[in-house]
Amino acid sequence: MHDIGYEGVHFRKSSPYGVIKNSTVxxxxxxxxxxxxxVYLGSxxxxxxxxxxxxxxxxxxxxxxxxxDNRIGPxxxxxxxxxxxxxxxxxxSGNTLDGAGEKNQNSGDSTIDxxxxxxxxxxxxxxxxxxxxxxxHNVWDNAGCGNTFSKNKFVISNANGYGIxxxxxxxxxxxxxxxxxxxxxxxxxGKGVSKTPTTPGV
Length: 202
Description:
The protein is mainly β and 202 residues long.
């Protein structure tokens, strides 16, 4: 998938159990860089009226999606993988993400952005992100919680960046479902592998 005006691959309108594997995605967002994600899971809550379940009353239930062993980037204008709030229980594994060419429009400044719940994000390699390798955000209800990060490798070129930036976990703690950043994640450059403490044995 390449030379595309907006996002490369989008699982939306309650499309569960999808798999994208052994694919290459690059040169996206040529028309709208802020919407030039490589692989996009679900929909923002502001778009659930169009793409949400139960006539838009519920989240876009694009759950249990697997993103496996893909090469994403360079010149993916927004995030390499964007995981939206309301989705859950997917797997992001074995991908090589090159953030060179990210435009930092519409908050697109990491190679993976996580707003969903209970994802397993493991064994990925991220290089050249605009800021952080991966970011975690709580933007709706208690979403953005219960995700596990392990065995990922980072090369951070931005001096202010982290491999994994999971900042505000207060909603996750109150929901008793914190994100877990394993000590098995490794990287060079920036301010370090993780902005928050890592968990041994993960």
